């Protein structure tokens, strides 16, 4: 069983930066995708960014140029560096690990951007 533990959320002013981390426990074999999703109050969960185990990344248009996803495969950890943050970035951020036949979610970490 894989568990995902997020850290790094908090309160930041508009224009500021935060770095989220997500560590996956257990051993992960084969091709996989780790990523970040977010859910703002009253809205559906949406993709923020993903990174595959072979280095391919994707970003939501709303965060391109401001957020950077990276991962350390040796540590089974994925990071999300968030710069030039906006109040619209306020949400619960969830880590996701997708394997061939299953996926796992973290419990989420709250990010609040004040104007």
Considering the chains and any ligands shown, give keywords for the structure.
7-stranded mixed sheet, single chain, 115 residues
Mean pLDDT, to the nearest integer, reads 96
Output the radius of gyration.
13 Å
Our count of helices gives 0
Q: What profile does the largest beta sheet have?
A: 7 strands, mixed
What fraction of residues sit in β-strands? over 45%
Indicate the low-confidence ranges by residue numbers. Answer: none
Give the helices and strands, then pairings:
Elements: E1 4-7, E2 10-13, E3 18-24, E4 33-39, E5 46-52, E6 57-59, E7 67-72, E8 77-82, E9 91-98, E10 103-105, E11 109-114
Parallel strand pairs: 2-11
Antiparallel strand pairs: 1-3, 3-8, 4-5, 4-9, 5-6, 7-8, 9-10, 9-11
Structure description:
There is one protein chain. With 115 residues, this protein is mostly beta strands. The protein contains no helices and eleven strands. It has strands at residues 4-7, 10-13, 18-24, 33-39, 46-52, 57-59, 67-72, 77-82, 91-98, 103-105, 109-114. The model has no long low-confidence stretch (mean pLDDT 96).
């Amino acid at each position: 069983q894989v568990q995902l533990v997020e850290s790094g959320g908090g309160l930041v002013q508009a224009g500021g930066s935060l770095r989220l981390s997500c560590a996956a426990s257990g051993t992960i074999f084969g091709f996989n995708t780790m990523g970040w999703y977010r859910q703002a109050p009253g809205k559906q969960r949406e993709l923020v960014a993903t990174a595959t185990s072979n280095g391919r990344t994707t970003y939501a248009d709303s965060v391109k140029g401001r957020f950077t996803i990276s991962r350390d495969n040796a540590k089974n950890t994925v990071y999300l560096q968030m710069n030039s943050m906006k109040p619209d970035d306020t949400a619960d951020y969830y880590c996701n690990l997708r394997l061939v036949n299953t996926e796992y979610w973290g419990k989420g970490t709250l990010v609040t951007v004040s104007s």
